[in-house]
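Deliverable D4.2, example record:
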Amino acid sequence: MLTCKQFLEELNDYLDPSIDPETKRHLEAHVCECPNCFVIVDTTQKTLKVFRGMDPQPIPEDLKNRLWSALERKMAAKKGVA
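Output generated by the structure prediction step:
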């Protein structure tokens, strides 16, 4: 049986509709036995449904520039260039 930590590491796969049936059954067995993980899955599915129903909103240009700058700094730091 999976631990909650192991299940949460696989949560993204569990929510992916293209997951193979055997893996889905394996993960689902944990959700059926674990009320905490059941709540996490239920809440995540409801949240995704809400966000999928929303219209995309444009990102303000200044925010976009700050995000790109932060990402570039982080990538440079990982490469030891910073």
